[in-house]
Amino acid sequence: MKVAIAPFAFTIGAGYGGIGVWKVTALSGGLEDVLSARGAEPARRLSLTDFLSEWRVETEAGGGLVDQPFQARHLDGMVRCYMSGNKVVGFGHQLVRALADRKAGPAGPRLYSGPGDDRFQGLRTSMENDWTPGMVRLLGLEISTLPVIWDADFLLGPKTPDGQDTYVLCEINASSVFPIPDEAPDALADTLICRLKAAERARRPA
């Protein structure tokens, strides 16, 4: 068993903070170069079979193992899109270094901005008009049941022929979302007020 020549990223179960996340690159002789996203752990060389054997208990317990193409633009940063219900309420951009060469240095701070940030209007449009409605349909949810605050993390994918960014979903967070952009609390309050009013109307006799 071996991976394709192009690097892949593997995530076991619900990885966080670099725990359970690796970059795996095929080498000659049936070996793989395995780099953990955790801190300064050095890369290891072993077969893919041996690597998977180390995590057999976790995967057989139902955590699963996700493999996906490694995103070459990951050093351009991760974009966190903050949502309230089905509306974008802000962004956080951070230069990540978890799966970079150790010489790349530590990650930078997450820098927050409001929903009007010109850099991310394409992402905002996709989240509000396409991806969130699609997620709701796929999972059989109602817009009104989406959390008052949640977020989705994206890496930058290949640019389009006209030079626009594309985005690759990393994960969705519905807990431990804070801190949030300064512009977000007012939008959260509006969402909560609207839901309280809707609940009050629903309780009134017909």
UniProtKB/TrEMBL annotation:
It comes from the Bacteria. InterPro entries: DUF6815. Residues 76-178 form the DUF6815 domain. Pfam families: DUF6815. This is Cj0069 family protein. It comes from Novosphingobium flavum.
